[in-house]
Amino acid sequence: MLNEVADFKITLLSLKIDKKDPLKTPELNGDGKQLAGKSVVILDDVLNSGRTLMYAACHVLQWKVAKLRTVVLVDRKHRKFPIKADFVGLTLSTTLQDHIEVVFEKGKDAVYLE
């Protein structure tokens, strides 16, 4: 959707981090060298402790990006790490026992609190 409104080139890359072993080298579906000197936006579905977003930012910063912004669809505000989202879709007050599920289906995107 961004390509339809942006007057600049957008490249979408996927960065997969092992939540059980975040120090393990993440999987990037492209060449990280293309990030050097560019503005990068990290998008995550749910921001809870901040661990995933923190490790993603650390990994992306190795390519000396020009600017880094973070976007989350849902912010639960249970931080253990000193990171914040620059842009938030929805902020939910939850307990640590609650579970948030984000589902993407054509025409039926949804967020569930369980």
Account of the 3D structure:
It is a single chain. With 114 residues, the chain is an alpha/beta fold. The chain has a single domain (2-113), classed as Rossmann fold (3-Layer(aba) Sandwich), CATH 3.40.50. It has 2 helices and 7 strands, in the order H-E-E-E-H-E-E-E-E. Strands 3-4-5 form a 3-stranded parallel sheet, covered by helices on one side. Strand 3 (39-47), helix 2 (51-61) and strand 4 (67-75) form a beta-alpha-beta unit.
Secondary structure layout:
Blueprint: H1 2-5, E1 15-16, E2 27-28, E3 39-47, H2 51-61, E4 67-75, E5 87-91, E6 100-103, E7 110-113
Parallel strand pairs: 3-4, 4-5
Antiparallel strand pairs: 1-2, 6-7
Q: Mind telling me which CATH architecture this is?
A: 3-Layer(aba) Sandwich
* Strand tally: 7
Multimeric organization: single chain
Question: What's the mean pLDDT score?
Answer: 91
Strand order of the largest sheet: 3-4-5
The helical percent reads 10-25%
